[in-house]
Amino acid sequence: MNRRKVTVDGISACGKTRLIAALSEYATAHYHGKVKPQEYFSGEPSPITSIEIQSPESGLIDFWENSYSTYGRLTPLAYPKTTLVLFCFALEYVDDTRWEVENRVDYLISKKSPKGKDASLILVGCRNDLRKKQEDARSTKTLTKASEQLRQYAKKNRLAGYFECSAETDENIAELLRTVVGILFLGDTGDSTRKHRKIGSSKCIVL
Ligand SMILES: Nc1nc2c(ncn2[C@@H]2O[C@H](COP(=O)(O)OP(=O)(O)OP(=O)(O)O)[C@@H](O)[C@H]2O)c(=O)[nH]1
Ligand SMILES: [Mg+2]
């Protein structure tokens, strides 16, 4: 069975663990998926969530969370042999963290990157429900403007995708998983030949 590693990295406490849980739940319900029991890693909880899917391809996805708060000692193992990086940030703090996101992704796509040069990278904005609530309460669009700049950054740097999701409402979880499965098992790539296309609403773009 094909086995692929996906590194889930990003800003601290932005929603990485919940994103993996939402993707796992969706894969179980719609890809005939099965979440493998958690293994322990030298006595510590494992940063790996393994999901076996049966359709459209059969394969095993290992989501490896790079969390400094939970799995600090294991962070050097997060990138080697990864096929895809989901780099996450929280959309309700995007105005404060945009520069950190760009700096860290610049490094991940540079020659010094700990990921292999063929590994793709998708930018994932998490907690879109909270962003919407905040903007509604303040009647502003400052967060939307900041996230638009990240979308442009993703496009300029030919990243494999840019998504705005909510693990709370499941917004764009299906679309993100479809793109992940395509890259891992169906030969979709993140190279410059990719056409700019929209999926569903303007909230989700695969570049
Ligand atoms: N409303 C809402 N809350 C979310 C969403 N995703 C995550 N959260 C909440 O945000 C908090 C942090 O989520 P985690 O998934 O633990 O974040 P993390 O990035 O794994 O955190 P670290 O591993 O500590 O870096 C938790 O209270 C989650 O329940 C979302 O889409 N909507
Ligand atoms: Mg976590």
TrEMBL record:
Keywords from the named record: GTP-binding, Nucleotide-binding
GO molecular function, one term: GTP binding
InterPro entries: P-loop_NTPase, Small_GTPase, Small_GTPase_Rho
GO BP of this protein: small GTPase-mediated signal transduction
Stored Pfam families: Ras
The protein's name: GTP-binding protein rhoA
Classification lineage: Eukaryota, Fungi, Dikarya, Ascomycota, Pezizomycotina
Domain of life: Eukaryota
